[in-house]
Amino acid sequence: MDRVHIIMAVYNGAAYLAEQIMSIRKNTFTDWVLWIFDDGSSDETEDIINRQSAEADGRIHYMKNARNKGVTLNFLEGIRTAVTGAADSIPVKAAENYYMFCDQDDVWMPDKIEKTLKAVKRNEKRYSKKLPLAVFTDALIADEKLKVINPSFHKSNHLNTGKLDLPHILMENKLIGCTVMFNSALADKLTVIPRNARYHDWWIGLLGAAFGHLVYLPAPTLYYRQHGENVVGNQDFHAYVRKRTAALREQKKVLYSNVTQAKEFYDIYRDSLSKDKKMQVYAMAHLMEKNWFYKRYQCLRFGFLKSGLVRNAALMLIL
């Protein structure tokens, strides 16, 4: 028996929320629980959730935060709540629990849960369900009315999904949170809620790469809606290049944020990392303390690199 726990973070999501929840309810896989964490909405978000919940046979759990946490913390703390709820609702031996992230404004394809779960189960057989595993997929980029702008998020952003080892993930996030599913072995690794995680999906990616496996499923499973209120949205590769060229100083700050994230990851997990992974995380955590030559040497030695020549040229420039 498999049960999928969907973790949704919402904030003033009334415009698209009902459509998103309905797309979950219409999925071909039906043994799911939706955990909604409201970060202090002041619009009709709560009313919409209550109406949806009344029609969903008790599978929607709504919690409103006492204070605004921000999207990353809201998602990560939501994992712990869902894990506790999963243990309380079904005896551990009676169910295999899996976890997904969900944004408030996208639309899921009808087979999203089923397709992703099959990929997770297939790779658990390959690697062992005792190891942390996260699967993420592609997404259709759509406008406010769900008209497809681009058929592939990863291709439009020139992201190399073949490089999912820990050094690459330490430097660059390739996961789209709203496409991710991970197993209980990974969820159980979230023993401490980080304060310096760049994004919730990035932290999950680090856990998978450090302790188990990351797997990319090259098929879109949702309409990734782009609109004026996106917290993290899509930008095409040319926009990325223009932005990076015009703001190299700002990008150095981003690089320091990546290093700060690595430092916290090292502080939390140093005693459980394998020797080689421990060395990789430590090197990233102390990257910016090195001289001009050694920073670049470390990036090449360990593979702290991004996707493609342009991104890596910019990285070498700002180090």
From TrEMBL:
Name this protein carries in UniProt: Glycosyl transferase family 2
This protein's record includes keyword Transferase: yes
Protein keywords: Transferase
Matches recorded under CDD domains: GT_2_like_d
Top-level division of the source organism's lineage: Bacteria
Domain Glycosyltransferase 2-like: 6-125
Organism field: Anaerocolumna jejuensis DSM 15929
InterPro entries in alphabetical order: Glyco_trans_2-like, Nucleotide-diphossugar_trans
Name of one Pfam family that matches: Glycos_transf_2
GO molecular function, one term: hexosyltransferase activity
